[in-house]
Amino acid sequence: MGTRIFRDAALEAPATRPVKTYPFFKLDGSVDLLLILVLIAFIVYGLLMVYSASTDYSWWWYDSAFSQFHRQIIWMVLGIVVAAVAAFVDYHNWHKLALPALLGTLVFLLIVLFINKTGTSETNVFTRAFFNGSIQPSELAKAMTIIYLAVWINSKREILHQVSWGLAPLIIIIGLVGGVILAQPDYSAALTVVILGGMLFFLGGGEWKQIGLVLVGGTILAIFVVGISSTGKARFSDYLAGLVDLTKASEHLVYSFQAIVKGGWFGVGFGRSSMKLLGLPFAPTDSIFAVIAEELGLFGVFGTVALYGLLVWRGLRIANRAPDLLGSLLASSLTLWIGFEALMNMLVMVGLLPFAGNALPFISYGGSSLLTTMGAVGILMNVSRHYQPETDKEEWRSFGASADLRGRNRRRSLSRISRP
Question: What is the dihedral of CA 102, 181, 205, 151, to 10 degrees?
């Protein structure tokens, strides 16, 4: 059954609708200008913060204060190339590309899992990645899961309410990808894949009963994983202890709060963080939001949140203007994924969530997160190029457009189609 699911998911829409052909490259149409400006702001802002946060850490690990900054510039240039290519590749071609891309991602995940089992490194980050931790296939798996499920939901939207083509395939696809990631182990990435899958099923118009079952099953699985994992137990116990008494929280959170308090409203100044020198763990990567809070203050924090808010707003706007359900699903889910990653990172740094290890999109040091998020923005740009004000959207919107938040436009969603 699993082979049939993967084969059918890559097919075009059912034969009852005319099959359209699309050029591989979408060269006409205008890209969302505000989205480009937001991306440029993130590029500059991210490079500046990596430069500020990485000097001491880079000197300690690479004997050069600017090693990580120079690498981040290289990854940023590659990310711009990826975004540019994605912006010109017609997003309809993901019908043909989604399956090979997901299978290739699974191959990379299995290779990393094999490397982990052979014990080639004592550092978990390195055994979950290539190139000394710069490229983690689990980050690519998040994006490929979103794209694959968007294609699958679009092609099966008339029968999505059926358990055989709704809940069951969703569990198999997410379980396969999430299970391989979990075996590395990378708990936060596996949890993110599960949440993203449930989110896409919701956006596509899945049955509320099925969505409830996914939520209940995901919660039980999360409790089970935390219960059997020493890392999961430690993180959750530290989180609960920190809620009761901050002094008993994890060392990571204590340093983060010290940085936030020291930063105050206006910060200590760019490049002048002391907590990144006194023990704040992973300052250029997981903890870069704490460096922002210390150096730029609460105004810098609010500015960062506002920048992500602009990105989410433009992404959902593009999704709402998409000419078909596939474009709407891709744009809305990729946008919400980036927003979710940012929210997770920031909430962890202020003690509202257990430590998860999510990167701060566009800002944290690292190639995998940067390349995948830049590629996601490139797909958003391509969807925006297809916007035509006179396009008749009633046919696909009657199936429940994701950007219309399941019926907020007062039209019926997919789950209310007459059932056999």
Answer: 0
Is 96 in the same domain as 224?
A: yes
Q: Lowest mean pLDDT: which of 158-162, 364-368, 393-397?
A: 393-397
Is the same domain home to 82 and 104?
no
Residue with the two structure tokens 């034969």 = 15
Domains: count for the chain: 2
Same domain, 176 and 275: no
Q: Are residues 114 and 168 in the same domain?
A: yes
pLDDT in tens, 300-320: 999 999 999 999 999 999 999
389-411, pLDDT tens digit by residue?
655 454 445 344 444 445 444 44
pTM over cut 0.85: no
What are the residues whose beta carbons fall under 8 Å from the beta carbon of 172, sequence distance 6 or more? 1, 2, 5
